[in-house]
Specification:
Layout lengths: L10 H34 L12 H68 L17 H49 L7 H31 L6 E5 H11 L1 H6 L3 E7 L4 E5 H17 L6 E8 L3 E8 L6 H4 L11 H4 L8 H11 L3 E6 L5 E8 L10
Parallel strand pairs: 2-4
Antiparallel strand pairs: 1-3, 4-5, 5-7, 6-7
Helix pairs in contact: 1-2, 3-4, 4-10, 5-7, 7-10
């Protein structure tokens, strides 16, 4: 049999039980005291017959019989009154129980109303509206102290986020300029007339590769920072199948060089989502790049983009050695890599899947990493499914 679902043990439920119990105990105590005083008054009201001194024996016997009859009748009345008083007390106690629960729930609701307001307002505040404050009115009590503390925390967060936004806005120009200057200097040095030593050409090539790696790392930093602030330029309906096909086409040379077998037969055209085409393309490129880079020569990649009831899913699977799920779950964190024992090299900056996770989160989705029992990795990106109202073609 299915167990009955118990109500959640909320603060209001606990306060209701507490106040209801107090009201009920108070009512029960009042009824007990009333019954005790009532019974005492009834006991004291029993009449004691006086000593009758009749003149004859027959009259005395008749008087005693009459007194006994009166006493029996009086005791019956007292018993009926006691039963009626007990029944009325039990009925009043039942009414008090219902009233106590209702009063307890009402009082608990009024006590917790400011906390519910604080909770609702805090949930509504995000990185885009950190300027809002709770501003709870009222006396300087514990609730207002809590609200003022949260307002102070929001102010510090707003200051911190503003500083990070300024850094993101300035970092691109300030850091790319010296990189471009260094790259131009290398080109000038190699392009000078006259024979260039082979060591110089080799050194220039190595430096260009390192500069390209720094440039990619910088781009990853900036993308990660923008996504964490929820910057989504140009929201539109985007087909996951299109961005996946574009990512596979962009890595066709690398796929052919490593002799990888790609199965993209389940890339449908009905997996649409709302968001930035640029960021979603970057997300698909990173997932595919991760599958190509961290794979064995002659391995395989399986890609699918499908639509569910309310979600669009991008799944990329690869073969390889058996991985530990505990380590795989950490790959979405920046600079997390499993090492050369998995990839055969130390390529990559460790930002690829963390950027995928941040882009998915910025679009209201999730990234799930699963170590396949037979070996390899399954990467699943789940995003909200776009509807026809959003401009998706039928």
């Amino acid at each position: 049999m299915r167990r009955l679902a118990l109500p959640a043990r909320t603060a209001r439920l606990r306060f209701t039980a507490l106040y209801g119990s107090l009201f009920l105990l108070s009512g029960a105590g009042l009824l007990v005291i009333t019954n005790l005083f009532g019974l005492a008054a009834v006991g004291n009201s029993r009449a004691v017959p006086g000593q009758v001194r009749p003149s004859g024996q027959a009259a005395l016997a008749a008087a005693e019989r009459h007194i006994m009859a009166l006493q029996a009748e009086l005791e019956g009345l007292h018993a009926a009154q006691a039963r009626q008083l007990l029944l009325g007390s039990l009925l009043a106690l039942g009414v008090m129980a219902v009233v106590s629960v209702a009063l307890g729930r009402t009082v608990a609701g009024r006590v917790l109303r400011p906390l519910r307001t604080i909770t609702a307002t805090t949930r509504r505040i995000s990185a885009d509206n950190l300027h809002e404050r709770l501003a709870v009115p009222g006396p300087a009590d514990e609730v207002k102290a809590l609200a003022d503390t949260i307002d102070g925390l929001l102010e510090r967060l707003e200051t911190s986020f503003a500083a990070q936004r300024r850094f993101v806005a300035n970092a691109s120009h300030e850091l790319r300029t010296p990189l471009a200057t260094m790259r131009a200097s290398l080109d000038v040095a190699v392009a000078k007339p006259g024979p260039v030593p082979a060591q110089t050409v080799a050194l220039a090539g190595r430096l260009r590769a390192e500069l390209d790696q720094v440039d990619r790392l910088l781009e990853g930093f900036l993308t990660l920072a923008r996504n964490q602030h929820g910057d989504l330029p140009g929201r539109e309906a985007v087909s996951l199948g299109d961005v996946v096909s574009g990512g596979l086409a962009a890595r066709a040379a690398d796929i052919a060089r490593r002799n990888l077998a790609v199965d993209a037969g389940d890339v449908g055209g009905d997996a649409w989502t709302l968001g930035s085409r640029t960021l979603l393309s970057r997300m698909a490129d990173n997932v595919i790049d991760n599958a190509v880079t961290h794979n064995r020569d002659g391995g395989w990649i399986r890609v699918s983009a499908t639509a569910g009831h309310a979600t669009a899913r991008l799944v990329v699977e690869t073969g390889g050695p058996v991985l530990a799920q505990e380590q795989v779950a950490l790959l979405a964190e920046p600079f997390r890599r499993l090492g050369a024992d998995r990839t055969g090299s130390d390529r990559g900056s460790g930002l690829g899947l963390s950027i995928v996770a941040s882009i998915a989160a910025a679009h209201g989705g999730t990234l799930d990493l699963y170590a396949r029992p037979e070996g390899g990795l399954r990467v699943t990106v789940t995003l909200p499914l776009a509807t026809e109202r959003a401009g998706v073609p039928a």
